[in-house]
Structures are given as structure tokens and as C-alpha cells.
Design brief:
25 helices; disordered N terminus; 44% helix; alpha/beta; five-stranded antiparallel beta sheet; single chain
Length: 669
Amino acid sequence: MARTHPSDQAEISPVSTQLQLARQRFFEEGSNPDGLIPELIARSWRRCASISATLSESPEPLPHQELSGRRDAQGRLRRHALPELEALAEALSPSRVIVLLADPQGMVLDAAGSDAFMSKAQRVALMPGVDWSELHRGTNAIGTALTEISPITVLGTQHYLEQNASLGCTAAPLLAPDGQIMGVLDVSGDPRCIQPQTVGLVRMAAQMIEHRMALDNVPRHTEILRFAHDRALIGSHREALLWIRNESIVGANRAALRVLGMTFEQLRGRFIDDLFGALPTTDCEQFDLSLHPWLARPGRSASWASGWVGHGAAVHGAGDLKAVACAPVHPDGRSQGAPIIGDPERDGQLERAVRVMDCGIPVLVLGESGVGKEIFARQLHKRGQRRDGPFVAVNCAAVPEGLIEAELFGYEEGAFTGARRKGQSGLIREADGGVLFLDEIGDMPLALQARLLRVLQDHEVKPLGGGRQQPVDFALVCATHRDLKAMAAEGGFRSDLYYRLQHFTVRLPALRDQAGGQARIEEFLQSMLSPRRIQLSPQARDALLSYLWPGNWRQLVAVTQTLVALAEPDSCIEVADLPDDIRHAWRDKRQGQRSTWGPSASVDVSRKGAGEGRLQATELRALTESAIHAAIASCSGNISRAARLLGVHRSTLYRHNLQERQNNNSAQR
């Protein structure tokens, strides 16, 4: 999601002695302009200096046909953004400015606004069909906002290219809930016309576009938790939104990041109940939402009005996403679609692990990807003595190596470029009093392994950038799919840390290796399909139950959710509807069975008399007819689907039916 920066645009006067000095130092002397211009501008100048060969002072706009193609590709963006583009242009009509919409690559798609300024804008190629990315146009609001993923204002000679010094522009990137850039909204004009209220209007319009696009097409099996400090803001572009799938956070808007005081990287993948002590119920009424006490920060509110909006409304035909709709929940509080993980052996391991963890001994969970290692860790937390404390999960493989140290250990203000004001406590300190879960610890950099070992020994953590040691008290659960013992022997994992973690190890078997695995797969399939009255054909059921599921529970859940999303209510899922890998595995298995049966049958026929051969041929025809009748019946008489199911052309079944009718007519005569 958008990175947070200090207010780099506090000064927006078009003429500045400091700016002139900065250009002299940077362009004539080659020295650093830091301190004389905003940080974002300085970073952009340095980037542009390294790519000066690609900059274009006189770009040509795209031909009309190519521009139409780019616009068509961004149809959804334009549908939601153009009304705001026109409204913003009307609100700024007294100023000599134009409003621009660009795609994620910086290509200007549309423009609206002052006719008086439009001709000047065209002289500097500020028009639809021109690429205004940093790569081609140097420092400018459109390109730099896309590069920094942050709102920015660029005035006069803050532009890298001198020919753009007559422009003032302010832009805000348009971000999807998952942090992906959808485009950018920009206002450009005479630098004197870019006032603080202009900047505010652009950012407000960008929020409104993001809000509309976010609620326009909510994916299946995804719910949105909406909350705000004031109930009157619920449903407006100022509400905070969190996208939730399988109880974990998969998206957030700017307002949610701001009120929670977190980055998108910190939120992504966290279970929703890690943040809030209670969630809105399914009675579709607004509810007071509260952060867990250990996440509350001094001076920041921890309680909001809240409600749900999600695909549940569309499923039931309401279609109006302004109505609050809630996800179905099992009696035990688990969302539908959560895997059914539990068996006597696993329960026994869980009981022993709880006793070990409560004694302060780390628990190491091993198993293939998708077997439910994090679910096991969460069950540990809920059953242990620290159940009232936080559960903080960190995926060591997902956090960039350059950020994981700061994420884990925290940092002081000014510890590094881009550090947040007042610093950050770090995830280890957030886990104080609870459980710290380090997933994929085998991917943790060696240098951090040494720091983690020191924390485990001293029960203290020291943030980056200095500061005093902070005492911490947490239980540690680690998980990995790697062979840590082999890695330690080869030097890929610290042996001292490995021996600290391996005192109690839990090995979770793959789904294909679990006793009664097929019965549990079938139970899960029925729990997902039955609510929509969807059935499985015998062949599809056999294909799903016999598949080896290399992705284990995670793959099973994803495949089933996709099948449910694509199937109509009261329909029957056939083999042809299954993913390619599952369908091919099932056909390979059947072909193997046929090849085993085929040669022995031919040998038997060669050794038998003609009468027995004719008998066997009669039996084979009967088996063929039986299989065809069963396929057609399972497809409710649909010949095309039955043919796909049997792997033959539909004309074969039509001929078979015609021949059968002819035989029946002959018999009747």
C-alpha cells in the first residue's frame, strides 16, 4: 500500500532561493541537494540523473487508435474516475489548471479543465496520449507519484527538465485494496494556481475514486469490514475498509492504514481477530469495534463504529453494496470455508505442545506448505496460558530482507531514511505477554538469527538506531517446510539457534499421508458445496478424492472456493469443470488402469474359443452402454457434457443413441 512520508510539500511557493541554490549544486556542481528541497524531489532528481538518456523533451502523443486501446484497457478505472475528473475540473474552473487521469504506467488518458491553459499544456506535451512517467519526463507529479506511491506536488523548477519549469502540478496515486497502483489523478497549471486547497481537493477526489472502485466488484468469499470514528462517516469515502478472506486481511484502504497506524505490509496476512477483540455480528447492525489493548497507542482512539459490506449481498441477489451484509459463520465462530483440520494424532500433538510452550520452551512446527502450520500455532495460543495476550505472526519469507530487521526489532526515530516519526516498537515487543509465531524461519537471514538468539537468551530487545534495551516476555512458536538440521550442517542456518529451537518438534503430515484423509476431504467438500446445493458427479468426486493435493489444505480450500464461485446453484460439477492438473491426474490414473487390464484381456481372448470371444464382446458392449447411460444420466441428458466426461466426441454418443433406437425398433417389429 502507500508508503507514509513526512509532509514533503509544506512549502509550495513557486519561486525559492533555496530551490535555485539546489539546482545549481545538483546540476552544475554535482553535489547533494538534500535539505534544500523536499526529500521526494531530491530522490527523484537522483533517479533521473541515472536515466537521463531516456528522457524526452519533445514527446509525440500516441496515434488515436493506440490511445483508444489504452483507454479501453482501463475501462473500469475511467468509468469511476471520469465523473470525479469532471467535478474536480468544475470546482477548479476559476483557476488556470487542467485535471488529468493517467494509467499505472503514466500514460495520460483524459484531460479536462481550463481552455485558456490547455493550449499552454499542449506546448509542453501535457495531453492525452503522452507518457509522463519519470522514465520519460523526469521529475513531475504524475511520474513521481507513481514511483514513490505517494501524493506529491512539483512546482516550477522542481521539475527535472527545464522546459517544464513553467508548470505546477499536484498528483495522487490511485491504489487498489491490495496496494496495486490503478492510475494517478493530477492537476496541472501555472505554479501560482497550485494552492493548498488545490492539493487537498486532488487527494479527496482520489480517495473518492478509490472508494468507489473498491466497492464496485467485491470478490467472492471476501468480506469488507468498514469502520470510522463517527457513525456518520460509515458509507462515505472517509470510512476505513479492511478486506478479509478466510479470516485474514488481504486488503486495506488508506483510511484503515492511517487509523490503525500500520503499513499494508504489516497488515497483509494477519488474522482479523489479531487486531480486534470483537467483530460486528451478522445482524447487520452497526457495532462498536475495539482494538486489542496491546495494539492501542497513546493519543489514538481504539474504538470505532463499524459494520460489514461484502459479496454476501450480491450472492443473495441484493446487489446494493451500501447495505450491510455479513459472512456466514459456523457455530464455533469459524468462517465457512476454513479447512477442517483435526484428528486424534494432531490433537495429541497439540496437547503436548501446549504443555511445553507453557513451560517457556519454544515449539518448532514442521511440514509441507499448506498443511496448516499457522492454524496449529493459533490453536496453541488459544489453549495456552497466554491466550489473553497477543498472537503476532511474522512470515519471514514474505518480508523483504531489508525490512525484516526493522519489522521484528523496531527502530528509533531517524534510524534510517524513510523511518516513521517516533519510530516503531517492532513485532517482538508487540508479542510481549503473548505468542510470537515465526513462520518460514528457515528463510530468516543469518544476521537476524544471531539477534533473535540474543533476544531468546536475554529476554530483551534493542531497537535499531540506538535506545535502551526493552524487556520482553513471549512464548515462541516457529514453523518451516525446510530441513533445518541439514541447513545447520551446511551452514545455511545457525546451529546454535537450531539447537535452541529443536527441543520439541511437531511434524504435521501432508494431506495425502493422513489417516482417513479422503473422508475428511469429502467432509470439507460437502461443507462448501451443500449450502449452494451443488453436487459432484461420481467421476468428479473420484478425481478430487484420489488427487494427491501437493498444496495440501491450502490448495484444497482454494480449488473448492473456485469451483463454488464458478458453479451455478443446483448444478453438478463434472470432471471437465476441474482444474487441469486434477483432471489430468485422474485421466492418467484411469489410463494406467486400462493399460493394466488391456493386454491381459487380449491374451485371454487369443487363448479362448470363438464362442467365449463372442461372449466377452457382448459383455464389453454391455459395459460400454452402461457407462454411456450413467454419464448421460449424471449430466441430466446433456450429450455435450457427457461426451466431455467420457473423453469422446459428442458425435460418438449421438451415433450410439441412434443405433440404440434402431435396435429397439427392430426388436419391436
